Every structure is written in structure tokens, then in C-alpha cells.
Amino acid sequence: MSVKTAASLSLAAGLGKSRPSLGKRILNLISLRRSRLDLASLTDEQLRDIGLTRDQVADEIARPIWDVPSNWRR
Asked: Which segments constitute the YjiS-like domain (predicted)?
């Protein structure tokens, strides 16, 4: 399969998918913010259990609200 054909199929597959409504996107952002704050409240032992460092948590919390996980941008 050529690159052009693969790109066309990928684009066509995405056409059938609709973006979430504005309300749903706002609720997702609120949920993301809440999750980041919950992450900040974990103890060092809990962070070790999930394989994160305090520095990684600080970096995640410092991200702007619109900086969402890459899989949300599809």
C-alpha cells in the first residue's frame, strides 16, 4: 500500500468520527484538572507504586489546562 493510499484511508476513517460537544470537552478538561490535583496529593510511597517521581508530578501539574494527553487530540 502506498503512503498516499494509507493517508487517504486514515483520513477517511476519521471523517466518520465526530468531535465531542463543547460541554463534553469542558467536562473532560475539568476532570483532567481534578486528576492532576489528585495526583499532587499522593504520597511519595503511592507515587513509587505507580512509577512516578515528585518531579514528574510537578511537571504534569504545571501543564496548562488545554495541554491534554495526545490521544485526546485525534
From this structure: 32-57
